[in-house]
Design goal:
alpha/beta; Double Stranded RNA Binding Domain; 5 helices; disordered N terminus; DUF4136 domain-containing protein; DUF4136
Length: 183
């Protein structure tokens, strides 16, 4: 029974999760933004998978859907906001130690400490909104996790990841800062 609990705990701790965070300029006037343009970060991404044209297209489509759902209109020139995105990847290792010895002491059955390691790739999707007139960043959100894990539907994974990041962006086109803060 104890071994089953430890096995489930280990599987849950190794399950890929996505962490989302955001930050914004508290002095920005979000009520003036109604249009947007999407552009990758200058310099591009050198990662062959997360920086690929396929991934760039998925992220652009997901951002377009999220901004449109908030009432913003995409334009080619003179946009109020420039939506930029970037991705990166790094290799990490997770080490797990499970001491499965009985509670009454190791002397009865001997020590039984299982150590396992897992190598994985952690990815980030970083979304930045810039005031086009000032070229100043007004909002930034990012997600990190195993976004490049073996999955059958990467389109859905990227859509869900971008949607999760954009949940942190509370504004709608023309909405005042006070309305978001509940004043």
């Amino acid at each position: 029974m104890l071994a089953a609990v430890v096995l489930v705990g280990t599987m849950v701790s190794c399950a890929p999760s996505i962490t989302v965070r955001s930050d914004y300029d508290r002095t920005a006037n979000f009520s003036g933004y109604r249009t947007y343009a999407i552009a990758p970060m200058p310099g591009g991404n050198s990662d062959p998978v997360m920086g690929s044209q396929l991934m760039q297209k998925r992220i652009t489509q997901a951002l377009d859907a999220e901004m449109s759902a908030r009432g913003y209109r995409r334009v080619e020139k003179n946009a109020d906001l420039t939506v930029r995105f970037d991705t990166d990847a790094r290799n990490l290792q997770q080490i797990q130690s499970n001491n499965l010895s009985p509670m009454w002491g190791w002397w009865w059955y001997g020590p039984n400490n299982n150590v396992s390691s897992r190598n994985y790739e952690e990815n980030r999707v970083i979304i930045s909104l810039l005031d086009t007139k000032t070229n100043e960043m007004v909002w930034q959100g990012w997600a990190k996790g195993e976004l490049n894990a073996r999955r059958k539907d990467r389109d859905e994974l990227i859509r869900a990841t971008v949607a999760k990041v954009m949940q942190e962006y509370p504004y709608r086109a023309g909405m005042t800062n006070a309305a978001v803060q509940g004043e």
